[in-house]
Amino acid sequence: MTIPLVDLKAQYRAIQSEIDGAIQQVLESGHFVLGPNVQELEQEVAAYLGVKHAIGVASGTDALIIALESLGIGAGDEVIVPSYTFFATAEAVLQVGARPVFVDIEPDTYCLDVQQVTEQLTPSTKAVIPVHMYGHPASMGPLLELAGTHGLKVIEDNAQAMGAEYDGRKTGSLGDAGCLSFFPSKNLGAYGDGGMVVTNDAETYERARMLRTHGWREKYFPETTGHNSRLDELQAAILRVKLNYLDVWNQRRREVAAQYKEQLSDLGIGVPYEASSVKHVFHLFVVRLRQRDEVIQILREKGIGSAIYYPQPLHLTKPCQFLGLKEGDLAVTEQMSRETLAIPVYPEMSDQQVQEVVAALEGAMVGSETQP
Questions:
Q1: Dist. CA 302–CA 323, nearest whole Å
Q2: Which terminus, N or C, of the chain has the lesser number of Cβ atoms within 10 Å?
Q3: Do 365 and 261 meet the contact criterion of CB atoms below 8 Å apart?
Q4: Cα 349-350-356 angle, rounded to 5 deg
Q5: How many angstroms separate the Cα of 83 from the Cα of each of 19, 143, 283, 336?
Q6: pLDDT of residue 185
Q7: Within a 10 A sphere around the Cβ of 240, how many other Cβ atoms?
Q8: Cβ distance 89 to 157 under 8 Å?
Q9: Bridge partners of 81?
Q10: Residue 188: what are its φ and ψ, rounded to 5°?
Q11: What 3 state SS string does 125-162 have?
C-alpha cells in the first residue's frame, strides 16, 4: 500500500461537490480579486480565531512581511526568531531591512526557548516571532509577559497551527499580529498560495490593508509604498468551504497522532510531546531517529511517504551567514535538523493506513538498527 505524506486528492474527493460549486460560483460572478468571498472569509476567520480583524494576502510569507511593516519594524531593528523553522520566518525579517536574531528551541515542543529570548535582548530588539511548530503552540504566556515588560511586538507565525489552542485561546490571536498560511498542505489549505494577517489592533489592521494593495487607502491614491499581495476569490471560496471542516479534520489528526504515539513509543522512537496547557493540531507528525537516512530509504521502498523538516538550521543558511553564527552555536536546533522526520498524518487516513505506517517503521527500525 502506498501512503503519501499528505493526500490532498482524498480530501478533495470527500468535499468535491461543495468545492466544485464554490469554484463555479466564482467563475460565474466574474469577480476574481478581493471580492465578496475574500471579505466573507476574513470575517469568518476572524470569528473563528476570536480576533477583530483579518486581512487576506497572497501568501504566508507576505503575511509575515506585511505584519512586520504594519507594526513599524524596519532597518536598524532586531527581531528574535527561532532557527528551527521554514526560511520565510527569517526571510521576512530580512525583507523589511531588520536583523534576525536566532535563538534555540525547546527539545520537546520544537518551539523557541523563551529563556534564550531573554538572553538575546538588546536595545535594538523590537519584536519576537514565535513559531507554533508542527501545530504545537509556543510558550505564549511567558513570552507575552516578557514582551510586555520590554515593549516588544509579538508576531505569531501560525502557518502550521490553524486551530491550535494555548490556554483555551486560538493561536494567532494572542500576539500583536498573527500570520496564517493557506499553502495547500496546511491544515486549512487552498489550491494555490494564500495567507492572512490577523490582529485586534485597528491601526495595525488599517496599515496592513493599505500595504497589501500598493499603499492605497483609496484606490489610485497611494499613501505609502506597499505590495501587490491580494488573496484571490477562487482561493477564498475554496477556503470558506474548508473552514467548515477544520475542527473535524484537526480532531482526526489528533486521533491519528494518538495511535502513532501509543504504538511508536513501544518501538523506542521519539514521538511528539503535547504540553498540558495546549491543543496540538499535528500539521505534521514528526519523530526522532538517529539513523534517519536509512529509515527514509526503507520507508520509501515500502511506499511510505516521509520528509525532513528542516534539514538546515536557518542560522547556517547562506543568506544568514553574515550574522556570524556557526555550527555548534544552537545545539538543540542542529540536533533536531539531523534527527527529525515527518511521517504521514492527514484527516483522511484510515486506521489501517496508520497500522501500515507503524509496521513499516517497525521494520525500518530493525533493518537500520536505529536507536532513539
A1: 42
A2: N
A3: no
A4: 95
A5: 37, 17, 19, 11
A6: 98
A7: 17
A8: yes
A9: 102
A10: -120, 95
A11: EEEECCECHHHCCCCHHHHHHHHHHHCCEEEEECCCCC
Per-residue confidence (pLDDT) for residue 118, from 0 to 100: 97
Picking from 199, 207, 200, the residue whose alpha carbon sits closest to that of residue 73 is: 207
Residue 370 has pLDDT above 60, yes or no: no
Contact between residue 370 and residue 290 where contact means Cβ atoms under 8 Å apart: yes
**Whether residue 369 has pLDDT greater than 60:** no
With a pLDDT cut of 90, the percent of the chain lying above it is 96
Residue 364 near residue 299, CB atoms below 8 Å: yes
Pairing of strands 99-103, 53-57: unpaired
Question: Residue 371 has what pLDDT?
Answer: 44
Residue 169 has pLDDT above 60, yes or no: yes
Beta bridge partners of 112: 105
363 vs 369: CA distance, rounded Å: 10
- Rounded to 5 degrees, φ, ψ at 158 are -105, 25
Q: Cβ distance 182 to 194 under 8 Å?
A: yes
pLDDT, tens only, 194-228: 999 999 999 999 999 999 999 999 999 999 999 99
**Residue 50 predicted with pLDDT over 70:** yes
- Measured in whole angstroms, how far is the alpha carbon of residue 215 from the centre of its chain? 27
296/341 Cα distance (integer angstroms): 8
Torsions phi, psi of 240, nearest 5?
A: -65, -40
Q: Which three cell numbers stand for residue 270?
A: 521519539
Q: Tell me what the mean pLDDT of segment 38-64 comes to.
A: 98
Among 94, 95, 155, 88, residue whose Cα is nearest residue 128:
155
> Which run of H or of E encompasses 57?
strand 53-57
What Å distances lie between residue 316 and 84, 194, 306, CA to CA?
11, 28, 24
* Cβ(37)–Cβ(233) below 8 Å: yes
